[in-house]
Amino acid sequence: MSKYKIEKTENEWKEQLTEEQYKVLRHKGTERPHTGTYNLHFENGTYVCAGCHQPLFKSDSKFDAHCGWPSFDEAIKGTVDFILDKSHGMIRTEIVCSNCGGHLGHVFNDGPTETGTRYCVNSLSIDFKNDED
After folding, report:
1. Do 87 and 70 touch, CB atoms closer than 8 A?
2. pLDDT-based confidence at residue 2 (cuts at 50, 70, 90)
């Protein structure tokens, strides 16, 4: 039994994703801060997984955390899995797409909104769907 609804071979992922997206989504990479397309993007719509297009975050949950990556105070219920991450000498909570397992970023308990949560997401791991689409 597979862990995720969407499972592909490494070659299938490489054919579908850009090289940079592949590094982030499939190998837990991180884009440089302040370089991502969606860092300062504030249109109305939904942010979806770049790997499988599952809706992940609504635009009304996005805020500017001044950290260099897109930040959200909550995910759409059931769309994100949480994994303990002890890499790089830190203890963090990794967030992955619950549909394909793609690495999105990390979640922290230092958010400025009432949720107290900051989902710190790589722009390369998401796409945006405008409300009019």
Report:
1. no
2. low
Q: What is the pTM of this model?
A: 0.95
Element (H, E) at 94: strand 92-97
End-to-end CA distance of the chain: 35
The domains located in the chain, with CATH, are: 10-130 (2.170.150.20)
- Write out pLDDT tens, residues 11-66: 999 999 999 999 999 999 999 999 999 999 999 999 999 999 999 999 999 999 99
Query: So what's the pLDDT on residue 132?
Result: 73
* Annotated active-site residue in 49, 97, 100, 120: 120
Contacts by 74-77, CB closer than 8 A, 24 or more apart: 74/115, 74/117, 74/119, 75/119, 76/46
Tell me the longest C-alpha to C-alpha distance in the chain. Answer: 43
Question: Are residues 26 and 125 in contact, defined by beta-carbon separation less than 8 angstroms?
Answer: no
Tally of CB atoms within 10 A around 3? 9
* Residue 49 appears among annotated catalytic residues: no
